[in-house]
Design a protein that fits this description.
- The protein is α+β, with helices and mostly antiparallel strands.
- The protein is built from twelve helices and eleven strands.
- The protein has a five-stranded antiparallel beta sheet.
Length: 352
């Protein structure tokens, strides 16, 4: 039964007896309940699911979520940025978490999100190497697929672009970086509480460069169904908040190049589809023939936005100038062939 909470004796001993349980919306990869215990406390119970061939993946996601939440539970002199882990049962892949009172949606959600994102990233350092997998990013195969897309759309590739992409892949090597990355910091995975924004759903947590997730504001929230466009003053504000918060916590400037991070998202075809479909096909190869949707935004609309961002950021870039010119031409070609493509919505239309 869906309302039967999967508590074994160890969990009963650790947190108490469930009295009432309400199943909550979640991804197909998990089950989540809001549970009232016999002593009156509310907790969240999350079970990572997967059977048969998916068992190994479910075990991995559970381990990453448990490790990510524990690292995120550090406070570093300020309020927590994730719910506390009260108990776990690895045998059934169950986590019992602190219940958070979500204050609900607000139009001015981005500053608090940016501050908490920087605080999350600053919680870890070199001493935490190995606590989580190293973040994954674009590969040589992604770069080749991106260039093949240009050819399929009859857009000439400037001769300098392959070398620029090779240099980009080297600069995006996550190994020297140890920021705690959420892995999917999408609106909806953030809760607005009285103490500030807290993040949930750490199944893709990793260690890497925080710019990969700061880039979400510019590149359109690339792992999220609810893609959106942040521009002008709001974009400047949130990036300033992130960088100021990071500097205050670490004593250093944010390492790396935001243009590199955005270009890295651009050349990943898998960032055009939801997680369940990643690694299944060359998504760029599909773009000339079909415009597949994820949420209420199509793949071509996401791609046009990302191309425009990279083109704007690299006009005077020392290492990505030719890629910027290619991006500008590709965006124009997509809009020429499919003039009905819509711009991404503004964040004040956040639909959750």
């Amino acid at each position: 039964m869906p309302n039967r909470v999967p508590f074994n004796e160890a969990l009963l001993s650790a947190v108490g007896t469930p009295q009432q349980a309400e199943i909550l919306d979640s991804s197909p990869r998990s089950r989540v309940w809001r549970v009232r215990l016999a002593d009156g406390r509310l907790v969240i119970v999350k079970q990572i699911t997967g059977t048969g061939d998916a068992t190994a993946d479910a075990d991995t996601r559970f381990a990453r979520e448990a490790a990510g939440l524990r690292l995120a539970g550090r406070t570093s002199g300020g309020p927590a940025v994730a719910p506390a882990v009260l108990a776990t049962d690895p045998s059934s892949r169950v986590l019992v978490l602190e219940h958070l009172d979500d204050l609900g949606r607000t139009d001015d959600w981005m500053p608090g999100y940016a501050e908490s994102l920087a605080r999350l990233h600053a919680l870890t350092g070199p001493a935490d190497a190995g606590a989580l997998p190293v973040s994954s990013g674009p590969t040589a195969a992604d770069a080749e697929s991106f260039l093949t897309l240009a050819g399929a759309l009859d857009v000439p590739v400037p001769s300098a672009v392959p070398d620029e992409l090779g240099g980009l892949l080297e600069r995006l090597d996550p190994a020297p970086h140890h920021a705690l990355l959420h892995g999917d910091p999408c609106p909806g995975n953030d809760l607005r509480t009285a103490e500030g924004v807290r993040f949930v759903d750490f199944e893709r947590a990793s260690l890497g460069n925080g710019l990969i997730e700061l880039a979400y504001f510019r590149i359109g929230f690339p792992t999220c169904w609810c893609a959106m466009s942040v521009t002008a003053a709001p974009l400047t504000e949130v990036e300033d908040i992130y960088r100021t918060t990071w500097r205050g916590l670490t004593g250093k400037d944010v390492p790396g190049d935001l243009a590199d991070a955005c270009a890295g998202w651009l050349i990943q075809g898998d960032a055009l589809v939801e997680r369940a479909h990643r690694g299944m096909a060359d998504q760029f190869a599909r773009v000339p023939a079909e415009d597949f949707e994820w949420g209420y935004i199509s793949a071509r609309e996401r791609l046009v936005h990302r191309l425009g961002v990279v083109a704007d950021m690299t006009r005077d870039h020392d290492h990505l100038h030719a890629l910027g010119r290619l991006s500008s031409t590709l965006a124009g070609r997509l809009l020429e062939r499919w003039p009905a493509l819509r711009p991404l919505p503004a964040p004040d239309s956040r639909p959750w």
